[in-house]
Amino acid sequence: MSGRLESEPIARRDFLGLAGLWTTAIAIGGALLGMVRLPKPSVLPEASRRFRLGRPDEFPPGTSKVIAGQNVLVVSKPQGIAALSLVCTHLGCIVSKNEAGFSCPCHGSAFDGDGRIVAGPAPRGLRWLQVSAAVDGRLIVNAGNEVDPGTYYRV
Ligand code: FES
Prior knowledge:
Elements: H1 12-37, E1 50-54, E2 63-67, E3 72-77, E4 80-85, E5 96-97, E6 101-103, E7 110-112, E8 117-119, E9 128-133, E10 139-147
Antiparallel strand pairs: 1-10, 2-3, 3-4, 4-9, 5-6, 6-7, 7-8, 9-10
The structure holds FE2/S2 (inorganic) cluster.
FE2/S2 (inorganic) cluster (FES) binds near residues 88, 91, 104 and 107.
């Protein structure tokens, strides 16, 4: 006995037509969603690696100072101010300053006082970082910009 509440079985041709319609709708929806997301960057930019050092008179010629938390040594000489990265160029350990220059505690690389390599396995010397001045005259180090060794910022 078939009642009025029982649904009729869907015909195969109708089922395939509905499946095709839903598949098309999902594909169009996905494409529209992709178009809406297109203007947004999917890769976020890296945080700035610039940081302020302070006023130039805080670094009198003949002094050097490790900037806490930045792994940078600021060297002040009569020719200007320079910043050396204290990150070893081998595998990234933090080098320590000694009388001869710098030494790496991890695998024994040694660098002279200007960061030139003296003993490996580090493949190259320490990185010199860009130093500049902000509008207010305070010094800025850009740890993302390497400069040639021996580059001093004239104050
Ligand atoms: S990390 Fe400095 S020598 Fe290996």
